[in-house]
Amino acid sequence: MKQTHTGVWTIAEIEDGSINPVSYELLAWGKGLSERLKVELTSIVLTNKIKDIESLIHYGADKVYYVENDKLEHFYPDTYTNILQQMVEEMKPEIILASATTKGRTLMPCLAASLKTGLTADCTDFEIEEETRRLIQIRPAIGGNVMAKIKTMTNPQMATVRPKSKLPLPKDESRTGEIIKKEFNEEMYQSRYEWINYKRDESIEQPLQQSDVIIAGGKGIRKQENFKYLKEIAERLNGAVGATRAVVDMGWIDYSHQIGLSGKTVSPKLYIAVGISGAVQHIAGMSTSKYIISINKDPEAPIFKVSDLGIVGDATEIVPLLLKELKQGDKK
Amino acid sequence: MNIVVLVKQVPSTDNVKIDEKTGTMIRSELESEMNPLDMYAVEEAVRIKEKETGTKITVISMGPLSAEYAIKEAISMGCDEGVLLTDRRYAGADTRATAYTLSQFLKGKEFDLIFAGERATDGETGQVGPMVATLLGIPVLTYVNKIIEITKSAIKVQRAIEGGNEVIQTTLPSLITVVKEINDPRLPNLENKLRAKKSKIHTITNEELKIEEDKIGLKGSPTRVVKVFYPKISRQGEKITIKTPQEAVSKIKNFIKEKGVI
Ligand SMILES: Cc1cc2nc3c(=O)[nH]c(=O)nc-3n(C[C@H](O)[C@H](O)[C@H](O)COP(=O)(O)OP(=O)(O)OC[C@H]3O[C@@H](n4cnc5c(N)ncnc54)[C@H](O)[C@@H]3O)c2cc1C
Ligand SMILES: Cc1cc2nc3c(=O)[nH]c(=O)nc-3n(C[C@H](O)[C@H](O)[C@H](O)COP(=O)(O)OP(=O)(O)OC[C@H]3O[C@@H](n4cnc5c(N)ncnc54)[C@H](O)[C@@H]3O)c2cc1C
């Protein structure tokens, strides 16, 4: 097959001028692929104000294309799609990666549909097929029960990548690269959307999916009130609180905390499962965590099969004590 | 108002079998149901209908004949009629081919709002909704957890995004994908159950839709599942039956320290 498209792109995510760390994770994935393919790694930035853009080079990009315009302050799928479509058609990358955040999961299907190409969702790993140079995209599906290897027959090959599936490369401030501004006609920025406001949800102290530590509770915590221990522990560990569907259904905690097949997928560095049985639908949302500790009084609980440290014991006794010791640690 | 709800049929058991050669799911009629996350889309549509007289809700699905069952589930919750796009040639479609087929049917039809689920519990891509919207040239609002206002020509919603909620509006017609927290789906009442049972689902094949064969089914799919495998999720962990809570706390603290996670 004749090579019509070349280069690896990652779509950086910017919030209010600041680069979201998922952008650096994407570059770590992109770097591995671009080195295998011996092509350039380019990061694409769409923003209303530009800040610290060189950091994308320091984290692995060879080149950065950026578009800066007041109208890009908020994510409007039509504007973002139009601009990116034009850039892709002009420069023809062979691979485009974006994060599987709410933004990436909205933008990428719109862009793929406009470009008449395929899109693979929520990948956790990639390979390059030896003979063909094609990208093999690896993703969990069906509630994490299976892993699929997916290949895209058209160009560019597009994928969203699950946040936290790879660590960023170490920052190298001696790296240099080209930073190029792209400009478009004003009409490209027209949108049918109008942003009104954004409210932080104070109950999600740390966005679940960005947290390095998650402490999650299930029915085994016995009472709604016991979530307050989990919340305080989470605060002390700089983490967030998760929950099973069972306790969400009982109204013990808000749905936004639900982890699993019909809730959120997370992969923190540490997941502490408290009083959770370990149903497949729950495991589907947390099995990619780096380390899993679980507390359950039933030695046969399935959660122990996925745990690095399993504690057979009564959560209602352990959790308050854990909090007490963490508080004492603070004082020291 | 004319409302369309996109509904997918999914396997209802945990034990989904995959044809390891084609990478597609092996389905059987008895084991399928409406995608659980589509119930929230159906419920939201029915709530609009209850407020606005003269609203008509059409349920649309692409799938095998057995997907009629999922459509009837939606009708039993209060939708008016169902359309099933079904053809052997539609089989094996990825999200692109699925969205293309759905949008070819919808093109030129009258609708103000299209609802879709956040994602299907089997393929789990969440891509079909935004793709359908793009192919129809209409705006899409994803992850909607609250509809704030609908007027003749616009819709204002709240979206659940990282760390909080965003309020945004757009023009109609548009496509909305909803998340679970938007509502509590009702159980079908007897009257609607009977109506669903008796209702005739309009089936449409490619004889009628006449979509080019290279745009439908496996042939029209730019992505291919080349391999599926079952991940091993077991870990070589340590399991300890503790004697005192203090022992548990020490174990946890040591583990955290040892692995340097915090
Ligand atoms: C289509 C579908 C989608 C689903 N999606 C999700 C999802 O997204 N997320 C999700 O979590 N679930 C989901 N479920 C539900 C899932 O199947 C389980 O029912 C649920 O995860 C169980 O929650 P649990 O572990 O809190 O409760 P249980 O299964 O009741 O487990 C409670 C556990 O606590 C232990 N325990 C009791 N007392 C104590 C104590 N004092 N100390 C320590 N341990 C104790 C028990 O031994 C038990 O193991 C889904 C189900 C279906 C069918
Ligand atoms: C293991 C595995 C992995 C896969 N990975 C990918 C992939 O990465 N990329 C890809 O393009 N395809 C993929 N597919 C194919 C994909 O699952 C099918 O195309 C499927 O028909 C639609 O995608 P989905 O299940 O992800 O639906 P989603 O996009 O998650 O569904 C979202 C919503 O769209 C609507 N909808 C979806 N399908 C239909 C339908 N048939 N009729 C009516 N409304 C519908 C519903 O409202 C639904 O709630 C995969 C399939 C398998 C088995």
UniProtKB/TrEMBL annotation, chain A:
The keyword Flavoprotein applies. The lineage of its organism: Bacteria, Thermotogati, Thermotogota, Thermotogae, Petrotogales. GO terms for biological process: fatty acid beta-oxidation using acyl-CoA dehydrogenase. This is Electron transfer flavoprotein subunit alpha. Keywords: FAD, Flavoprotein. The keyword Flavoprotein applies. Belongs to the ETF alpha-subunit/FixB family. FAD binds at residues 244-245, 258-262, 275-282, 296. Its cofactor is FAD. Binds 1 FAD per dimer. GO terms for molecular function: electron transfer activity; flavin adenine dinucleotide binding.
UniProtKB/TrEMBL annotation, chain B:
PROSITE patterns: ETF_BETA. GO terms for molecular function: electron transfer activity. InterPro entries: ET-Flavoprotein_bsu_CS, ETF_a/b_N, ETF_b, ETF_beta_N, Rossmann-like_a/b/a_fold. Residues 22-213 form the Electron transfer flavoprotein alpha/beta-subunit N-terminal domain. It holds the Pfam family ETF. CDD domains: ETF_beta. Belongs to the ETF beta-subunit/FixA family. This is Electron transfer flavoprotein subunit beta. The lineage of its organism: Bacteria, Thermotogati, Thermotogota, Thermotogae, Petrotogales. The gene is etfB.
